Amino acid sequence: MRTQGRWVWKLCVVLGVGLASSAAWAVSQTETSASTQSFADMAAKVKETAYNTKFMADTVWTLVTAMLVFFMNLGFACVETGLCRSKNAVNILSKNFIVFAVSTVGYWVLGWGIMFGDGGWFAGTNGLWFVGGKDNSPSYAGTDKAAEALMGAYDGDYDAIAWSTTPLWCKFFFQLVFCGTAATIVSGAVAERIKYKSFIVFSFIMAIFIYPVVGHWIWGGGWAGSGGFLDFAGSTQVHSIGGWAALAGIIILGPRIGKYTADGKVNPIPGHNMGLATIGCFVLWLGWFGFNPGSTMAAAPNDIALICNTTNMAAAVATLTATITTWILMGKPDLGMTLNGCLAGLVAITAPCAFVSVGNSAIIGAVAGVLVVLSVIFWDKVKIDDPVGALSVHLVNGVFGTICVGLFHKDLGLFTSDKGAGQLWTQLKGIGGTAVYVFGLSLLAWTVLKFTMGIRVPAEEEVQGLDLGEHGQEAYPGFQMVQK
Amino acid sequence: MKKVEAVIKPFKLDEVKSALSQIGVQGLTVSEVRGFGRQKGHKEQYRGTEYTVDLVPKVKIEVVVADASAPAVVEAIVRSAKTGEIGDGKIFVSNLEQVVRIRTGEKGEAAV
Prior knowledge:
The structure holds 2 protein chains of 2 kinds.
Chain A: H1 2-30, H2 39-82, H3 89-116, H4 145-151, H5 168-189, H6 196-218, H7 223-226, H8 235-253, H9 274-291, H10 301-330, H11 335-350, H12 358-381, H13 390-408, H14 422-452, H15 459-464, H16 466-471
Helix pairs in contact in A: 2-3, 2-5, 2-9, 3-5, 3-6, 5-6, 5-8, 6-8, 6-14, 8-13, 8-14, 9-11, 10-11, 10-12, 11-12, 11-13, 12-13, 13-14
Chain B: E1 2-8, H1 13-22, E2 29-35, E3 42-46, E4 49-53, E5 56-65, H2 70-81, E6 89-95
Antiparallel strand pairs in B: 1-5, 1-6, 2-5, 3-4
Helix pairs in contact in B: 1-2
């Protein structure tokens, strides 16, 4: 064996030398002699190579982080299923699975175009259908003027996202998984009593008309972004949109049977699998390392390193403060609250993650953890039945995180700079506009669906479990489980 | 023939099984049940709300023995299942009309 190894090694050396010599000879044949070649030309070639390398790195980074965000759909599926009853498990898994398919198709057909097509303050008008607009990505609009001059300016229908030095389909894929995340938030809030087909229809509306319009405002060149509104990875754009749509759904849908009694008592409906819920939370935490740092859509070393840490720090501190809060209020640390605490921190840091210090991200997480526990208790007090805490995690902390940009932005924050409350005010305007549009349109959509195809399963089906009623199957066939 | 049914604390099952096999009991049936007596339930919490769980998990053991063996079986179960705390459980002894071994068709005390 050893003599065989030495023989192969010698062959490699010979081949390598041969290849290198041929390459050097070939290169020397393409260049004219050094005296006739201008230095500027050679410098341009070197720069071009460097820019192409940036193109490669940015693209790989953006695509891989997008895959992590896609994986978050598993996280949502597990958290929601674990926190609900076993008799509804097939239905919840189905909703979380199919919603990504719905988002993919809806966003491809029209959603992307509305969001990133060149247009006005409200929505895109160019390149609307099937990501088919004119486009010569990549451009170096986001790098520097010299790069843009050398490599060519952007010429296409998606100017608002031309700053990212990645191909068009890379941009689409990355933005698509964010749309999918917003759509899946709704599924937890309406769980255990929603009709499957109505949820599918609403998700199409979400992916085509709700999410992309606000997306156009914030990231697509519309009024919010142009007015200075900042939301780095989507506390407003993804999480609060999901949250407002969820709130509208819960209001039109009503609470689960048996959740609230006529005399105002709140009955807990415990989830059936805390293991699954915990797995889901870990998956979401991991996925967020794609969600936040990936939103640079560029392999920018300092930025992505910082964002990984602001993200993680907020999650960790929120986990701790949520646990402490529930420990104090209820006497023992509730795992569901701990998990929600982690997610609340992640949601809250999503908007400010690139703009704040790691220290401030700890503060943001600390507040988020307390906020989510109080919020869960609050929604039950006002008889808004949210089986998995979607409102507390995504709506409340989505809004809070957006506000934090105005408070802690290193250059513009009320607490961290001398610029006063200007950015904070801009953030509030964006939050308000989003609330009005998303909550309003969602209320309308849910109401129309309620009076056309119906959105709630019949009472007997709800008691028996949606698995049998909506899907004709059980999640755990053969297991004897005492149903409530 | 007598049927001895005992509702006991779940963690006592192994001890009770050992005690029964030591006195010569050759078969028994175990089921997981819920119930309460004077132990009542306990408090649990879920996402900020406290609630009472009335039905406490227990284990029910059923043993069928000849009339003469029943007292020894009861005594063995009491000895091995007792903790002294509320919730230890209860034993019910009833008469059986008929016992059949399915494999051989034996009836009565021969089937026990």
